[in-house]
Amino acid sequence: MTNSLKNRIIILCVGLVLLTTMVSLFSFWWSTSEFNEKKVTQDINVAENVYKQYLSAKQSLLLTAAKVLTSDFGFKQAVATRDADTISSVLYNHSQRINADLMLLLDLSGKLISSNTPQQNFSNDLVQLMSELLNNSEQSNFVVLNNELYQVILLPVKAPRTVAYSLVGFKIDESVVLELKNLTGLDVSFIAKGDDLVRSSLLERPVPFIPTEYFHKKTTSRIFGERLVYRNRDLSLPSLNQHSVNVMLSADLTQSYSEFERLFFTLMFLAAITIVIGIFTSSLLAKNLTMPLSQLASLARQFARGNYSVDAMSKKQSSEISTLIDAFKNMGNDIQEREQQISFAAKHDTLTGFYNRSAMLEVLNEQLNKDREYTLVAIDIRGLRHINDKLGPRIGDDCLKAVAGRIAEFSDEFGGLHARIGGDEFLTVFPSDGSQNFKNDIVGLMAQLQACYTIQKLKINLRFSTGVVQYPAQGLKADDLIRRVLIAVDNGENAHESIHYYQAGEDEEHLERLVMIDELKQAIADDDGQLFMTYQPKLNIASQKIDKVESLIRWQQKDGRWISPELFIDLAEQSGLIVELTEWVIKTVIKQVEQWQKNGIYMQAAINVSAQDIAYPGFHSNLVSTLKNYSVAPALITIELTERDMIENEEKGIQALENLKAIGVKISLDDYGVGQTSLGRLKMLPIDELKLDKCFILKLDESEKDQFIVESTITLGHQLGFSVVAEGVETAGSLELLKCMKCDHVQGYYLSRPLKADVFEQWLKEYNNEHA
Question: Is it the case that residue 376 has pLDDT exceeding 80?
Answer without folding.
Answer: yes
